[in-house]
Amino acid sequence: IEQLLINVFENSGLHAQNATELLISASVEDDCFKVTISDNGVGYPVEEGPVGIDGRVLNRDMAAGSGTGLGLSICEAIAKLHRGSFSWGNRPRGGALSVLQLPSSLLGAS
Q1: How crowded is the C-beta side of 75, counted as CA atoms within 13 Å?
Q2: Where are the beta strands (DSSP E) in the chain?
Q3: For 44-96, what is each residue's pLDDT tens digit?
Q4: Are 44 and 59 in contact (CB under 8 A)?
Q5: 72 touches 12 (CB < 8 A)
Q6: Which residues 6+ apart lie within 8 Å of 42 measured at CB?
Q7: Do the Cβ atoms of 20 and 96 come closer than 8 Å?
Q8: What is the pTM of this model?
Q9: 40 Cβ contact partners less than 8 Å away, ≥ 6 residues apart
Q10: Neighbour tally for 72: CB within 10 Å
Q11: Residue 37's closest CA among 96, 104, 106, 107?
Q12: Contact 44, 97 (CB under 8 A)
Protein backbone atom coordinates (compact mmCIF):
# COMPACT_ATOMS: atom_id res chain seq x y z
CA ILE A 1 0.00 0.00 0.00
CA GLU A 2 2.90 2.31 0.77
CA GLN A 3 4.25 1.85 -2.78
CA LEU A 4 0.81 2.60 -4.22
CA LEU A 5 0.64 5.90 -2.33
CA ILE A 6 4.21 6.77 -3.32
CA ASN A 7 3.33 6.19 -7.00
CA VAL A 8 0.28 8.46 -6.80
CA PHE A 9 2.16 11.21 -4.93
CA GLU A 10 5.04 11.03 -7.41
CA ASN A 11 2.59 11.30 -10.32
CA SER A 12 1.21 14.49 -8.85
CA GLY A 13 4.66 15.89 -8.17
CA LEU A 14 6.11 15.02 -11.56
CA HIS A 15 3.19 15.46 -13.92
CA ALA A 16 0.76 17.97 -12.42
CA GLN A 17 2.42 20.97 -14.13
CA ASN A 18 1.83 24.09 -12.07
CA ALA A 19 -0.51 22.40 -9.59
CA THR A 20 -0.92 24.38 -6.40
CA GLU A 21 -2.76 21.79 -4.31
CA LEU A 22 -2.70 18.12 -3.43
CA LEU A 23 -5.85 17.03 -1.62
CA ILE A 24 -5.91 13.81 0.43
CA SER A 25 -8.96 12.50 2.22
CA ALA A 26 -9.76 9.23 3.97
CA SER A 27 -13.07 7.80 5.13
CA VAL A 28 -14.84 4.57 5.98
CA GLU A 29 -17.95 4.03 3.87
CA ASP A 30 -20.02 0.84 3.54
CA ASP A 31 -17.37 -1.43 5.12
CA CYS A 32 -14.75 0.10 2.86
CA PHE A 33 -11.75 2.26 3.74
CA LYS A 34 -11.46 4.89 1.01
CA VAL A 35 -8.50 7.18 0.27
CA THR A 36 -8.97 9.90 -2.34
CA ILE A 37 -6.03 11.85 -3.74
CA SER A 38 -6.48 14.70 -6.19
CA ASP A 39 -4.59 17.68 -7.53
CA ASN A 40 -5.39 20.74 -9.61
CA GLY A 41 -2.85 20.08 -12.33
CA VAL A 42 -3.43 19.12 -15.95
CA GLY A 43 -4.95 15.73 -15.16
CA TYR A 44 -4.34 12.42 -16.88
CA PRO A 45 -4.14 12.53 -20.71
CA VAL A 46 -6.47 9.55 -21.07
CA GLU A 47 -6.95 8.15 -24.55
CA GLU A 48 -8.67 5.00 -25.76
CA GLY A 49 -6.45 1.92 -25.85
CA PRO A 50 -6.29 -1.74 -24.86
CA VAL A 51 -3.57 -1.34 -22.21
CA GLY A 52 -3.85 -1.44 -18.44
CA ILE A 53 -5.94 -3.50 -16.08
CA ASP A 54 -9.09 -1.50 -16.83
CA GLY A 55 -8.48 -1.12 -20.56
CA ARG A 56 -7.27 2.49 -20.49
CA VAL A 57 -3.86 3.72 -21.54
CA LEU A 58 -2.03 6.93 -20.87
CA ASN A 59 -0.42 8.32 -23.98
CA ARG A 60 2.16 10.87 -22.91
CA ASP A 61 4.98 12.33 -24.95
CA MET A 62 7.78 9.85 -24.26
CA ALA A 63 10.41 12.29 -25.53
CA ALA A 64 9.48 14.61 -22.69
CA GLY A 65 10.02 11.79 -20.19
CA SER A 66 6.48 12.15 -18.90
CA GLY A 67 5.84 8.47 -18.27
CA THR A 68 3.73 5.66 -19.66
CA GLY A 69 1.15 4.93 -16.97
CA LEU A 70 2.95 1.81 -15.74
CA GLY A 71 2.87 3.16 -12.18
CA LEU A 72 -0.93 3.29 -12.30
CA SER A 73 -1.13 -0.32 -13.45
CA ILE A 74 1.12 -1.22 -10.54
CA CYS A 75 -1.22 0.67 -8.21
CA GLU A 76 -4.18 -1.31 -9.55
CA ALA A 77 -2.33 -4.61 -9.02
CA ILE A 78 -1.32 -3.66 -5.45
CA ALA A 79 -4.91 -2.78 -4.56
CA LYS A 80 -6.19 -6.09 -5.97
CA LEU A 81 -3.60 -8.01 -3.96
CA HIS A 82 -5.17 -6.44 -0.85
CA ARG A 83 -8.74 -7.31 -1.95
CA GLY A 84 -9.35 -3.69 -2.86
CA SER A 85 -9.61 -1.48 -5.90
CA PHE A 86 -7.78 1.48 -7.38
CA SER A 87 -9.28 3.84 -9.90
CA TRP A 88 -7.98 6.96 -11.59
CA GLY A 89 -9.28 9.64 -13.85
CA ASN A 90 -9.75 13.38 -14.04
CA ARG A 91 -11.63 15.80 -11.84
CA PRO A 92 -14.53 17.59 -13.58
CA ARG A 93 -12.79 20.97 -13.22
CA GLY A 94 -9.32 19.67 -14.11
CA GLY A 95 -6.62 17.79 -12.31
CA ALA A 96 -5.99 14.16 -11.53
CA LEU A 97 -8.14 12.03 -9.24
CA SER A 98 -7.06 8.69 -7.74
CA VAL A 99 -9.17 6.54 -5.41
CA LEU A 100 -8.00 3.58 -3.33
CA GLN A 101 -10.62 1.39 -1.67
CA LEU A 102 -9.81 -1.44 0.74
CA PRO A 103 -12.03 -3.65 2.86
CA SER A 104 -12.24 -2.01 6.30
CA SER A 105 -11.80 -5.44 7.89
CA LEU A 106 -8.32 -5.59 6.36
CA LEU A 107 -7.37 -2.49 8.35
CA GLY A 108 -9.13 -3.45 11.57
CA ALA A 109 -11.74 -0.70 11.09
CA SER A 110 -15.44 -1.28 11.54
Answers
A1: 22
A2: 22-29, 32-39, 46-48, 56-58, 85-90, 96-103
A3: 776 543 344 454 555 544 334 456 667 888 899 999 999 999 998 888 888 88
A4: no
A5: no
A6: 15, 16, 17, 18, 94, 95
A7: no
A8: 0.77
A9: 16, 19, 20, 21, 91, 93, 94, 95
A10: 26
A11: 96
A12: no
